[in-house]
Amino acid sequence: MKIIPFLCCSAIVLIWSSPAGLRAEEAAVWHTDYRAAVDEAREEKKNLLIVFTGVEWIDICRTFQDDILSKAAFMDLVSTQFSLLNLEYPKDNKLPRQEAVQKSLLRDAYRVKGFPTVVMTDLQGRPFGLNGFQPVSAEEYAQQILDIDLAHEEKLIALTESKTLEGVAKAKRISEGLPDLPGNLLARYYRPEMEAVIAADADDTLKLSAGFKRLIVDLDYSQKMEELARSSKWVEMEALSDRYIADNKLEGVALQKALLNKAGVLGLQKKTEDLRKILDRVIVIDPTSDPGMRAKKMIAEIEAGNAPEGPVE
After folding, report:
1. For the segment 146-158, what is each residue's pLDDT rounded down to a tens digit?
2. CA-CA 20 to 30 A from 145: which of 86, 101, 123, 235?
3. In terms of Cα–Cα distance, which of 183, 65, 188, 76 is closest to 125?
4. What's the CA gap between 130 and 88, in Å, rounded?
């Protein structure tokens, strides 16, 4: 589980800096160096707001930058509560080695799938809010961010109060303290709280435990797949995916996603025939779902001579 204080572990080495950052009328500053943003957050006891973007090659990112992020009306309001970090990802992914490593780690840690993505984290690096481009004014967007921050403060109160409670009441208050995040992020960063809900509500009165258990199982599978991938243990990854599907009796979209993971591993091994069979199976389950559409795209790539490689999810 990648819960690490501001992700400042030995795996992240920051050796370049751009201290000037992106300024708005000499007021608040957008850091482009992670360490500088973290230092400000710690010194001024702020949270961290990270923008993952591709201004140089994505029109909506450029609009977001020009119309909202660079405006003093946004920056001056939001910088009272947040240290601001802008991470630019070039289209060709060509970056100095250490910068590339850092940006890859951050993108993976917060499961960023596309640009622009805005992630808000606390001083421990735990995300508590997500956002993206919205067609609103700089002032309105700033208020969205501040509203998420205020909701986060209220949730922290709920978590503190839960420590004095027992049983279902404790579980309910903990659940009220959990941020509104996608399941994969929630399990990665709030697993102890989820496990506390499960323990306090043994009979699943709140109807949360089953879902939390599933998210934790999914997280364990994902992290084990990542571990095996680092050692190029493709056969073991195939077997793990098969066990994960069978043990959890996966159906529907969940099954499709697991099969896509296996398909990616087959692609790495150049097992094109087996890969095609798995993709056909994904499409049969539901051709209109997100995984089903992705499987169609992967088949088109195979037919074009470009077999997909690596786990998809």
Report:
1. 999 999 999 999 9
2. 101
3. 188
4. 17
